[in-house]
Design goal:
Elements lengths: L2 H4 L6 H4 L1 H14 L6 H14 L2 H4 L7 H13 L3 E4 L6 E4 L1 H11 L8 H21 L7 H8 L2 H35 L5 H11 L11 H6 L3 H7 L2 H33 L1
Antiparallel strand pairs: 1-2
Length: 266
Amino acid sequence: MAVDDLLSSRSGAVSAHATVTLAALLAADVAGAEGFRPTDVRFFFLLFTNWMEDDHLRPGLDIDLTQVRRALARLVAEGHATVVGGGRAPRYALVPAGVLALVEALTDARAPRTFEEVVFLATAAASYRDAIADRARGAPRAADRIVRARLDPVRILRAERRRLEGAVADLEERVASGLRMEAVARAAEGEAPGALAERLRAEVGGYQLHPMRSLGELVAVLPPAMARFELGPGMGLRARALFAPLLEQMRARVAILERLERTVGG
């Protein structure tokens, strides 16, 4: 189930920072022996973003209590949580099936996550998956075992490593292709942009958005000086100044994840 379907039909921090929001809800539930309040969810949200250095990287990041209340109301309406007590400041508790639903959304492989969120999620899973799984006992499908499997930190890290390895391979090709195009364009200096674009396609290959708009179509609408730049110097500049640094970063992240697998899998 998508996080928007699970927590909120409206946009905001709940959707934009789903990993931390879901983790905060689970943490508040595990920590609240007699239920938890929206303020507890906000506290854990701020604690987890503090752990990820968002105080420095994204200063001002917060979640509004109104958004938390809406998310909790939706969980109650869907049968994933119950209201504990009453009054003006009710407490909430997740039911076992609700714990499973939140864990499945938290570990959804399709959900976008920053690198910091992946590392946080794996660390939280290594630390608290047994406590979370205990809260899922009693739900159908042996939910506690499913929770433990979904919160396997090595599984989380390996899935992200495979995704990043795909990006590494793509960036390696982008760097190599950009430098080859620059060399071909330099050797064909003075050739008209349209002819050069066709030469590059034939000798090096198209760029990644070629099916949407070919290189020839792209440069045809550019001023001549810009077209000549794009068909040579621009390719080399992007290879060195954009794709190569991104490749270096991705390789470093893969190496970090490999080390973390050994740390949490030992």
